[in-house]
Amino acid sequence: MYLRVNRRLRRRLTISLSAMDPPPFKIILCGDSSCGKTSLLLRFTEDSFADDESSTLGVGFGVRKLGKQKLQIWDTTGQERYRNVVTSYLRDARVVVFVYDVRNKDTFNNIEAYWTEIIQKHTPHSIRFLVGNKSDAHPKEWQVSSEMAMAYAMQNKMYHVEVSAKTGVGVENVFEQIAEVGSLKVAPAQREPLSETTNESFNLITSAPPTSTRKTRSDSGCGKCCHQ
Fold first, then answer.
1. CA atoms within 13 A on the CB side of 33
2. CB contact set of 103 (below 8 Å; sequence gap of 6+)
3. How deeply is 53 buried, as exposed, middle or buried, from its count of CB atoms within 10 A (0-12, 13-18, 19+)?
4. Of 41, 44, 157, 163, which sits with the fewest C-beta atoms within 10 Å of its C-beta?
5. CB-based contacts of 43: which residues, under 8 Å, 6+ apart?
């Protein structure tokens, strides 16, 4: 009799604890083809990387739990002929992650030329992250500087970070910040502005290209959360 009651209580306790977990929220990865959205998703959900990753056709999907928070990550195609399909998945997105390739300025320019407009139209209240992928590239290959990207992020009230899906640098950290900020349901525009004269930040990793006059930032470094 005792064992039966004990099992019932344990079952009820498990159900009660599960009910306390916050509901999952939706994250959309968007950007041009070959900027590394799928690689970013695989690195975070499976801790894997494939150099020969083919372009996503339509929409990919992955789930991972950080603490009690479950993240539903939707990997959208960057191919123009499938973009109409992408818009149907944007509804109810809590966080939108604009991904660009630091070695390809066109992927950065197209965020403004196309992606921000479509996101603003279909999910205007989402929180936005601007993520520069492939930060492991040689400094001479970089076409989008950290300063250029940060200025754009500040102007458009986004969080900015640079990561490498190939090496994994910054990936875990940025999704932890997405989970933290997304659970607060507060977009950068609604927060108190950070002082430009202080080093206050949300601990986003920035892997800026190393130069002889500029110190590189390690995996434990941080960059500024960009908003006005």
1. 13
2. 134, 137, 141, 142, 143
3. middle
4. 157
5. 49, 165, 168, 171
Minimum mean pLDDT range among 11-20, 119-128, 201-210: 201-210
With beta carbons less than 8 A apart as the criterion, state whether 157 and 189 touch: yes
CATH number of the domain bearing residue 39: 3.40.50.300
The mean of the pLDDT values for the chain is 75
Chain-centroid distance of CA 135 in Å reads: 15
Distances (CA, A) of 156 to 27, 97, 149, 152: 19, 13, 11, 6
- Number of folded domains in the chain? 1
In a domain, residue 201? The reply is no
Side chain identity, residue 34: S
pTM over the 0.85 mark: no
Mean pLDDT confidence for 77-103: 78
Q: If you average pLDDT over residues 47-74, what whole number do you get?
A: 78
Task: Identify whether 35 is part of a domain.
Answer: yes
What separation in angstroms does the CA of 9 have from each of 18, 19, 147, 207? 14, 15, 57, 49
Whether 88 maps to a domain, the answer reads yes
Classify residue 42: in a domain, yes or no: yes
For residue 131, what are the domain limits?
A: 23-190
